[in-house]
Amino acid sequence: SMRVPFIVRWPGKVKAGKKVENTITLMDCYPTLLDMAGIEKPDDLLLRGRSFYPVLKGADQRFTDTVFGQLDTLRSIRTPEWKFVYHFGDTTNNEFYHLAGDPGESNNLISSADGDLIRKRSEIRDILFDYMKLIKDPLLED
């Protein structure tokens, strides 16, 4: 659910056959639609995403490759190389994957005793919790 193709078809505006490797999220869709329609974002509207319309028009614009996900009491963060899943309801089900070497997520490294993996897991976990603080995630208040 965190790596889904996104297809745009807009004859005369978006070049057919164009492939973009940028990572986008659903939060980017609303700002993009506003941009495509030429509508300014209302000042009092909080949008966490950003328009990828310039990318569709051919601009060389990079988006973050880090993606936050949430479902009920589950929170996750995915970078191009790593994925960390934190289960607030039951932390014994936490997950940690090295996507660069295991894109199918078949080897959960959460219990690894390897020092390098422990440090990397902590680093990725901190990214997740920092993002949750930024968005004032209510699960941090429990």
**Based on helices, strands and strand pairing, what is the structural class?**
alpha+beta
Low-pLDDT parts are none
What is the H/E order?
A: HHEEEEH
What is the C-alpha radius of gyration, as a whole number of Å?
18 Å
Spatial arrangement of strands, main beta sheet: 1-2-3-4
Shape category:
globular
How would you describe the oligomerization state of the chains in this entry?
single chain
Straight-line N-to-C gap = 26 Å
What's the overall average pLDDT, rounded? 87
* Main beta sheet: 4 strands, antiparallel
Helices, by number, come to 3
- How many β-strand runs? 4
Percent strand: 5-15%
Helix content estimate: 10-25%
Keywords:
four-stranded antiparallel β-sheet, 14% strand, 3 helices, alpha+beta, 142 residues
Short précis:
The protein has 142 residues and is of the alpha+beta class. It has helices spanning 29-37, 53-56, 115-134; strands at residues 67-71, 74-78, 82-87, 95-98.
